[in-house]
Request: fold
Amino acid sequence: MADNLIVSLQAVFPLFVIMAVGFLIRRVGLVDEYSLKKMNSVCFKVFMACMMFNNIYNIDLSRFSDADVIVYTTVAVVLCLILVLILVNLTEKDRSKRGVLVQAMFRANFVVLGLPLVTNLYGAEGAVIPSILIAIVVPFFNISCVVLLTYFNGKERPTFKMLLKKIFTNPYIIAALIAFAFKLIRLDLPDMVRSVIKDMANVANPLALLILGASFSFSNVPKYKKDLIYCCVMRLIVVPMVFVLPAVFMGFRGVALMSILAVFATPTAISSHVMTQELGGDADLCGAEVVMSTALSILTLFIWIFVFKTLGLLPTP
Reply:
């Protein structure tokens, strides 16, 4: 029991500390909102893209035998969207809020928080499954949320060209496609180039977590108390129960189960706020939901990991 507690803390505690440092940096005035936006742009377009490329480029596909977890997660993400969409339409009368609420319950912060969780438990080799999942679920998150926010806020309907642009201008997708292309043609990069990409990739997660912590603002929390309780309970408790527990009964264990947990139990993606601002909707509600779900996820993720470790479902090497 004590060993499982320590391992669970080791998975979650580093994320909490880095976000706390970011929060303090913002409070003492070392960064402001403008500089955070610039840092966030550089992090996601450069460092996170390098991390995606590095993870996929170094995958040994000949040893990959977990196609079932990719299929399960992909189908489950689609079902999650459908079920959440039905639920929100039945429970929320304000049409202008529906797109924001669906996005908050459905769109996970899988890249910034999910991938580090898996690697904290299973090391660099554990990044194989989540890296492939990122290349699949992140485009789906982006496309579906563009459609949802545009539809519910009465904006111009998203065109096929617009959706294609969203896909192929996404830094994650570009990096993933290049990495897969290099593997397909068996292009070996020089060691010095690989070393540079690896060093830049290592910056990605700590910097993203630092920026996330620095972006925390609780000013709108009292205003949206009821909506926040609804969204956080759904995102952090109900959605994992509905889509992770079946994976347990289907026999997924170890890094496969942890990757599924990272997709469905992580908080709302921070990029949701930016997209809501761009496409219309209650951006203040979205921002408050990102903050609260992220803050509460430190506790809920710890509980999920601890319970699964205690039950022997997340064996570590």
